[in-house]
Amino acid sequence: MTNSVAQPAAESGQLAAPPRPPLRIALTILHLGALGLVGWIVFTILITLFSVGLGMVVVLGVGLILLAAMVYALYGTAWYEFARVSGLYRLDLPDLRLRPQTQQGFGGYLRWLARQSVDGPMWRGVGSFFFATFMGTVVLGFFQVAVELFFSAAGLNVAGMPFKQGLLSKSDSLFSPIASIIIATLCLAAVVGIALLHRVVTVAIVRAGSRAARLTQQAQTSARQREGAVRAADLERTRIERDLHDGVQPRLVSVGMTLGLAQQKIDNDPESAKELISEAHTSTKAAITELRQLARGIHASVLDDRGLDAALSALAGRSHIPVVLDVRLQGRCSREAETAVYFAIAESLTNAAKHSRASECRVVVRLRDDNTLWARVEDNGAGGARILPGGGLDGISNRVLAAGGTIRLDSPQGGPTSLEVSVPCAS
């Protein structure tokens, strides 16, 4: 069975270095030229879906299918425009998402469709796409005039060229060669100016409202992280109470009863009293060991003193099953990130020893280029692990979420089980 819990965090990998201004202008011109050729086809399809769908609504509701297709097409156009502008200008834009459907059934779907059809970000994307298409048409016109003028200045016959229906095809000698070159240069300059104008207007369109959307997304992320932190603290407190109640507390009660018996026999049967005191002494040392293990489960001091690599080495040495460690870290991360990854690995090794019947575990830890601390724990056990409320994997999930990270569990029946954790690292 496979489960995965994904939480907001920084994605792995870094954005490529942004292109230099001349290259970006050239890419913008190419984008505009392509949209000038294809964009009107897209709008023709959208208008056709709307007009035909609206006209056929009364025909057994067939038009509703076309209108729904139009809404999805509008969203796809807007999504493409957001992705195009974000990739072209290296903008950190929030993802364009469909509105959530809050009500079930066909009526709920129609209401969702109506709300989506008036979605502001979607229409901003469509508007940006329309503006880019219009500017692309103008760019193609200027470029065609410039090319015809250059051919005319060179003494070539443009009538035989593919654009022979151009503005100058019937009067190649309308301008002198020098004037043709000057006008053609001005046309190319106009193309560059349109590319610059496209950036200013398009970025303003797609970024309108993005600040509020980004703040809303950050607030939602913070709320989820706070919820995860509270949940992780509750689970940790419950675990500590259970360990104290089931382990240390009964042992200490037994020590007290043993010492009481020894006190009663110390005068009449000293030898038996000595044996009881020795038994109590052994139980006391065992209780101290359990308390140390419990404290280590709350806070690993070696993690603060020597770092994650040394802490994981000590953890692997105490494991009941063999652990292969592959840790490659170039430096230290924040205490929060290292603690989250450490306890995720510790809980995974504990689960592997208790439940999976694994004979070996492999732990891989890397500090990625995007400053993310990434870890993978894999065992060769029986698989079938699931994230259950109150369980160990639930505790891992909430602890990682509180640190702003992500967790992915892959555990099909029959194994193997792998757990991947990524936590942003502020070293």
Largest sheet: 6 strands, mixed
Q: What distance lies between the first and last C-alpha atoms, to the nearest angstrom?
A: 36 Å
Q: Can you list the strand order of the major beta sheet? A: 1-5-6-4-3-2
| Average residue pLDDT | 76
The rough form would be described as elongated
Query: What is the CA-based Rg, rounded?
Result: 34 Å
Number of domains: 3
Helix percentage range: 55-70%
Low confidence ranges: 1-18, 159-173
Report the sheet-strand fraction. 5-15%
Q: What structural class is derived from the secondary structure elements?
A: alpha+beta
Find the count of extended strands (DSSP E, 2+ residues): 6
Number of helices: 11
Query: What is the H/E string?
Result: EHHHHHHHHHEHEEHEE
Secondary-structure blueprint of this entry?
Layout lengths: L1 E4 L15 H35 L6 H28 L15 H13 L2 H34 L23 H31 L2 H56 L4 H29 L2 H6 L1 H11 L4 E6 L6 H22 L4 E7 L4 E8 L12 H11 L3 E5 L6 E8 L3
Parallel strand pairs: 2-3
Antiparallel strand pairs: 1-5, 3-4, 4-6, 5-6
Helix pairs in contact: 1-2, 1-4, 1-5, 2-4, 4-5, 6-7, 6-11, 9-10, 10-11
